[in-house]
Amino acid sequence: MTIDTTVFGRDLAELNDGFLALVTSGPDAGLPAVVAARLRTLEQASRERLASVSFALFGFGFEDQACWAGLLAPGVRDREPAYTACEPPVERFTLLALTILRGFIRVAPYSISAWAGLPSETRTRLAALGIASLGLVAPLASPRLRGRLADREVFWLRLIDAAENNDERQLALLAALGRQWTIRRSLGLTVPPQPVRGFRR
């Protein structure tokens, strides 16, 4: 079974926009300062175009399978002494994102990796998690919210440029590259060095 790309695309765009709204309002989510600053100056139309790219602009470090094995284990239900609360909007976003991802994993477990980068073991654990348990896991996962590929400053700046210039071709090319890197990281593979020229017309 495959994901209905229209439905998932719409939900993903809303999640991406929610993430961009968080960055705009405060936390940089691990993004380079220049990227966070550019995101905060985006006009609404440009932000909507950026949010509509076909991969998640955010992540929760899903590639760290050992961490997620702990977060999704039954014993995590009682918060650890080291638990530190995030801002309520971040925790709400995390709960919403995990709920939506869990739903799509149950429909199309293999397709989701290209969009959100979940390794197989984490996919299985998240899919098996009861809906009530997500409310306990989300606060613990919230501090892990980061911009996807946050270490790729040039990649993000090109995404922003393409969104501002309404360059659909460039956005599609960059989204394809983002999905490719996301899959590689979910498989534990090293992402190749950032190209010097990247995508140019």
Brief synopsis:
With 201 residues, the chain is mostly helical. The chain is 60% helix and 2% strand. It has 10 helices and 2 strands.
What can you see in these coordinates?
It is a single chain. With 201 residues, this protein is mainly alpha-helical. The chain is built from 10 helices and 2 strands. It has helices at 5-25, 33-40, 44-51, 65-71, 88-107, 112-116, 120-128, 131-141, 153-164, 168-186; strands spanning 58-59, 146-147. α5 (88-107) crosses α8 (131-141). It is globular and about 45 Å long. Mean pLDDT is 83; it is low at 195-201.
Termini separation comes to 36 Å
Structural class comes to mainly alpha
**Residues in helices, as a percent range:** 55-70%
Total number of beta strands = 2
The backbone outline, from C-alpha atoms, is globular
Q: How much is the average pLDDT?
A: 83
Q: Kindly estimate the percentage of residues that lie in beta strands according to DSSP.
A: under 5%
Number of helices: 10
Compute the CA-based radius of gyration: 16 Å
Order of helices and strands: HHHEHHHHHEHH
Low-confidence stretches: 195-201
User: How can the largest sheet be summarized?
Assistant: 2 strands, antiparallel
The count of domains is 1
Widest β-sheet, arrangement of strands: 1-2
